[in-house]
Design goal:
15 helices, 18 strands, alpha+beta, five-stranded antiparallel sheet
Length: about 525
C-alpha cells in the first residue's frame, strides 16, 4: 500500500488535481418563439413614447377611451384596424371663447395664433368639423366646457400585434415602412409604394402570414409568431422562422432548417406553457466526467474530470499520513500522561486518571462535526484542515494508550530492577523513560498498529461526511463520498468501489499485522 500510494503517485503522469477536458456536443438554447398576444410599439423617427405611455395606452383601449395622458403629455388614439392603433401627441396652441358670435383667442403654447389659423378654426366650426389644416399642419379642435381648445396633433407611434420579420440583416423596416405595410393591409390592397419603390403583398396559403415582395423576392413577412434569438447579434432567417412555425403546427419535437452558415442543421423544439424553446447542438469543451476505465485512464475519471487512479494514489498518501501522525500524537500524549501517572501514583495518579475519564466521556463524533462546521464557516484552507484533523483525532484518542502505559508501569515499578535504579539514585525521568517505557514498547507497538486501522476508518468517515479532507486534496473517504448521488452509485462503480476496497484492504492489513505482533510479543502465545 505504501508503494502504491507514495511511489505510484511519483510515477503517475497526472497530477492530483489535474482536470481532463473533452469536446462534446450539447444542446443549448438557440431561440425562443411564441404567438404574440401583446401590443408591439413602433415609435416615429425623432419622437418619444415613454413606457408609462404604453401602460396608459393599454388602459385607455380597455376602457374604450380615445385619449390618455402620460408624463404630462396628452395622447390621442385612432383605431386603423383590428389590433392596429395610431397614437398622436397633442400640443396646445390656443383657447377660444365664443360669445354672441364673436371669438376671443388666447395663445397657450409657443405657436403664434395667425389669421390663417383663426380662419381655419372658424370655417371648421361652421362646418361642424373638429380638424382643419393650415400650411400642411393639422390642427384639432377639442371642446372644454364653454371654451374650445386648438391643438396640434402629430403621430408619434403606432401599436400592433403583428410581428415583422426581415429577410436580410440590412432590410429597412423602419416606422414609416411598417406603417405603410399595415395601412395597405387594412385597406385590402395587394401592393403599395414606399420611398419610390413598389411592393406587393401576398398572403400565404395557410393565411397565417403576409409576405412583402420587392422585385420578385420576399423582403419581409408579417405574422403573429414572434421568433427571437437567445444571443445578441444573431440574425434568424425567414426560412428558419418558417421551419419553426411549421414544427409548432405539426407538434414536432425536432426539425431541420438552414443555420447561419447556410448548412442544414437539426434543432430541438421544446414547449414550456405557451412558450417554445428552440435548441441547437453546439460544440463545447467540458470536463471529462465519469469516463469509463480506458488506456488513458486505467480507473476512469471522477465527477470533476480527474484521473481516478492518481486520486486513489494521492488519497492513500493522505489517509496513511493522517493515520501515522495521529498515532504518533496519541502515543506521545499517552506515554507522558500514563508514565507520570503510573510511576508517581497517589494524588498525581488520581488527577491524571480523572482527566483521562473526562476525555473519554467527550462525544467524539459531535465534536468532529462541530469543529468541521466551524472550519467550513471560516473557509479554512484545505491543507490546514488536514493538520487540524490530525491534531483533533490525536488529542481525543490518547486515553487508551495512557491507561495501558499506566497499568504496565504500575506492575513494573515494584520489580527488582526498578528498586535497584532507585537505590542507585537514578533520576526519576531516566527511571521512567529509560527503564520503564522501553518495557512497554511491545504493547505500544501492538496497540498503535491496530489503532492505525481505526484512525484511517475515522478519517474516511469524516471525509465521507464532508467534514474531513476537502477538495482539491484527495482521500479515500472523500472519494467514496460520490455515492451520495444514487445515480453515481448505480451507474459508475469505478468511482467508489476501488476506494472502498483500498480502505478495506488497508485496515484489514494493519489489523493482521497488529495480531501478528501481539502474538510475537506475548510469551503465552508462543506456547
Amino acid at each position: 500500500m505504501f508503494i502504491f500510494s507514495f511511489i505510484g503517485g511519483m510515477v503517475s503522469p497526472y497530477g492530483e488535481s489535474q482536470v481532463f477536458r473533452k469536446t462534446d456536443h450539447v444542446w443549448k438554447d438557440y431561440a425562443g418563439a411564441t404567438y404574440n398576444k401583446s401590443y408591439i410599439f413602433e415609435t416615429a423617427n425623432g419622437a418619444e413614447f415613454p413606457t408609462q405611455g404604453q401602460q396608459k395606452f393599454i388602459l385607455a383601449t380597455n376602457k374604450g377611451n380615445d385619449s390618455f395622458e402620460a408624463n404630462g403629455v396628452t395622447y390621442g388614439l385612432e383605431q386603423k384596424g383590428e389590433d392596429y392603433w395610431a397614437i398622436y401627441s397633442s400640443e396646445s396652441v390656443a383657447t377660444v371663447l365664443t360669445l354672441k358670435g364673436k371669438s376671443t383667442y388666447k395663445q397657450v403654447g409657443n405657436t403664434e395664433v395667425t389669421d390663417e389659423i383663426k380662419e381655419g378654426y372658424e370655417e371648421a366650426v361652421a362646418n361642424d368639423e373638429n380638424t382643419f389644416e393650415v400650411d400642411g399642419i393639422t390642427y384639432t379642435i377639442e371642446k372644454a366646457g364653454r371654451e374650445n381648445q386648438i391643438t396640434i396633433s402629430g403621430e408619434v407611434a403606432f401599436a400592433t400585434k403583428k410581428v415583422f420579420s426581415a429577410a436580410a440583416k440590412d432590410a429597412d423596416l423602419g416606422f414609416q415602412f411598417k406603417q405603410a405595410v399595415l395601412d395597405a393591409i387594412e385597406a385590402g390592397e395587394t401592393s403599395f409604394e414606399y420611398d419610390g419603390t413598389k411592393y406587393e403583398l401576398n398572403t400565404t396559403e395557410e393565411e397565417t402570414s403576409t409576405e412583402v415582395v420587392k422585385d420578385g423576392e420576399v423582403y419581409a413577412t408579417i405574422s403573429n409568431l414572434l421568433v427571437s434569438p437567445q444571443a445578441n447579434g444573431v440574425f434568424l432567417s425567414l426560412s428558419f422562422k418558417e421551419a419553426v412555425e411549421q414544427a409548432i403546427a405539426d407538434k414536432a419535437t425536432t426539425f431541420t432548417a438552414m443555420n447561419e452558415a447556410g448548412e442544414e442543421e437539426t434543432y430541438q423544439l421544446q414547449t414550456k406553457n405557451t412558450q417554445y424553446v428552440v435548441r441547437s447542438q453546439k460544440a463545447t469543451t467540458v470536463n471529462d466526467t465519469y469516463s469509463a476505465p480506458s488506456k488513458k485512464h486505467w480507473a476512469g475519471t471522477d465527477g470533476n474530470g480527474m484521473d481516478m487512479l492518481t486520486r486513489l494514489m494521492y488519497g492513500g498518501r493522505i489517509s496513511l499520513m493522517i493515520g501515522f501522525v495521529v498515532i504518533i500524537i496519541e502515543g506521545i500524549i499517552g506515554i507522558l500522561i500514563g508514565g507520570i501517572s503510573g510511576y508517581f501514583g497517589g494524588w498525581v495518579d488520581t488527577i491524571l486518571m480523572r482527566v483521562v475519564d473526562v476525555v473519554i466521556c467527550i462525544p467524539a463524533m459531535p465534536l468532529y462535526i462541530i469543529i468541521g462546521s466551524v472550519m467550513d464557516y471560516y473557509k479554512i484552507d484545505p491543507r490546514i484542515r488536514i493538520y487540524a484533523l490530525c491534531a483533533i483525532l490525536g488529542i481525543v484518542g490518547w486515553p487508551g494508550i495512557a491507561r495501558m502505559v499506566r497499568g504496565q508501569i504500575l506492575s513494573l515499578r515494584e520489580q527488582e530492577f526498578m528498586v535497584a535504579t532507585e537505590a542507585t539514585g537514578v533520576r526519576i525521568s531516566r527511571r521512567i523513560f529509560r527503564h520503564l517505557i522501553p518495557n512497554v514498547i511491545p504493547q505500544l507497538i501492538v496497540i498503535a498498529t491496530m489503532g492505525l486501522g481505526d484512525v484511517i476508518l475515522m478519517e474516511a468517515t469524516l471525509s465521507f461526511l464532508g467534514i474531513g479532507v476537502k477538495f482539491p486534496y484527495a482521500s479515500w473517504g472523500n472519494i467514496v463520498n460520490a455515492v451520495n448521488d444514487v445515480y453515481v452509485l448505480t451507474n459508475f462503480w469505478f468511482v467508489w468501489i476501488p476506494a472502498g476496497f483500498l480502505i478495506l484492504l488497508t485496515v484489514l492489513g494493519f489489523n493482521f499485522v497488529g495480531d501478528g505482533l501481539r502474538d510475537a510479543f506475548d510469551p503465552k502465545m508462543k506456547r
